Amino acid sequence: MASAASVSSLAEEVTCPICQATLREPVTIDCGHNFCRGCLARYCEGRGAGPPGCPLCKEPFRARALRPNWQLAGVVEHIERLQPGAAPGPAEEACAQHGEKLYFFCEDDEAQLCVVCREAGLHGAHTVRFLEAAAEPYREQIQKCLVNLRKEREEIQEIQSRENKRIQVLLTQVATKRQQVMSEFAHLSQFLEEQRGILLAQLEKLDGDILEQQEEFDRLVAGEICRFSTLIEELEEKSERPASELLTDIRSTLIRCETRKCRKPEAVSPELGQQIRDFPRRALPLQREVKSFLEKLCFELDYEPAHISLDPQTSHPKLLLSEDHQRARFSYKWQISPDSPQRFDRATCVLALRGFTGGRHTWVVSVDLAHGGSCTVGVASGDVQRKGELRLRPEAGVWAVRLAWGFVSALGSFPTRLALEEQPRQLRVSLDYEVGWVTFCNAVTQEHIYTFTASFTREVFPFFGVWGRGSGFSLSYEGAA
């Protein structure tokens, strides 16, 4: 067994001239001197043009042609094992087959090797590198993966935060709707109670009128029965008398009986009967009030009406706007419109005069299309592109649908033709800014058409576009109530 002195002497022989410590990943340069790979790499850093010189003999060497000294690495390994306390520590794994320290990594087999494994010949044709050198590119790959994973995690966290805010907004809206429902039904309950009292009082009066006319009818009928009973008794008595008495005043008696006409009273007067028949009409105000209540309730549970007008400063010159800025029609004749940064110059579009930065709003657009014409309706970001070609898609700040002759399309990242029961003539657009919903439906049939989901951070404006001679649109408020 080697003595401590011989081991110490060998340790001095395997000392790096640069760091004065035991060689780590020893490499040999052109002049034959050995150094730690890391020390030599740091030594070469910052050198000027031309090959660097050996730290010992100053002989030039090629920095890219460093040769790993496997034998010397094995000697270092043995020396470290012979020194006291040189057994592999907890962080230094040993080769399971040879018990030697793991120095190398085979790229082909993805296996960690000791000096014995490396010299055994099984990996002779493989790419073998020192562990740290082999680990470095993988560290770089890991760092790239970490960057991407952290970025994706941040995106998921942003989505989580946005969706949680959206949920809170929805919960607040539901609480508000609950209060609205309770309030409206309280008013309705009070109104119904009042109407119930009024209608019952009217029915009570009709009931009294009927009983009063029944008494009058019974009195008249009793009088008529009494008179007819008297005549009947008189004739019965007359018929039983002798002929001489029977013939006395017989003609006047018969004439009096024959000319006696029966009065046929009515139990209910025509006027009272008409009042009874007309009574359901007295409930018409109640019916109208309940209908109005339901419409108001449904609307208040939905969105606030947005009374909007078109902004002539943004209108394309081919759009002819009405004086009240409530209608627009396509015209091949260019209008005299001074150019400005706000005006669309390629897309025949126009924005509303005012936008929204919050809240829930709805408006209705009546569309009038000529053959081959089309109309685009939706919302757009305030910084939407006004000059040049405008891409009608959410990525460009436009959330809209297009009504064309015979079909309707949702203008998403890829336009999607929608299957609808009927072509809408009136389109309701509803915006929920906080939740991020842009909803379209048929304002007449209430058929849902499409809903965009977005995350609004800037002001958005009602957006309109029309194309085709004779085609146009108008802002309508009848469908919004």
Automatic annotation (TrEMBL):
Coiled-coil stretches noted in the UniProt entry, renumbered to this chain: 139-166
GO cellular component, one term: cytoplasm
Domain B30.2/SPRY: 288-481
Cell wall biogenesis/degradation keyword on record: no
Top-level taxon of origin: Eukaryota
Compartmental location: Cytoplasm
Main location: cytoplasm
Keyword Membrane attributed: no
Residue ranges of domain RING-type in the record: 16-58
Keywords: Coiled coil, Cytoplasm, Metal-binding, Zinc, Zinc-finger
GO terms, molecular function: zinc ion binding
GO biological process, one term: host-mediated suppression of symbiont invasion
Span of domain B box-type: 90-131
Pfam families with a match to the protein in the record: PRY, SPRY, zf-B_box, zf-C3HC4_4
Family from the record: Belongs to the TRIM/RBCC family.
Protein name per its UniProtKB record: Tripartite motif containing 10
Source organism of the structure: Chinchilla lanigera (Long-tailed chinchilla)
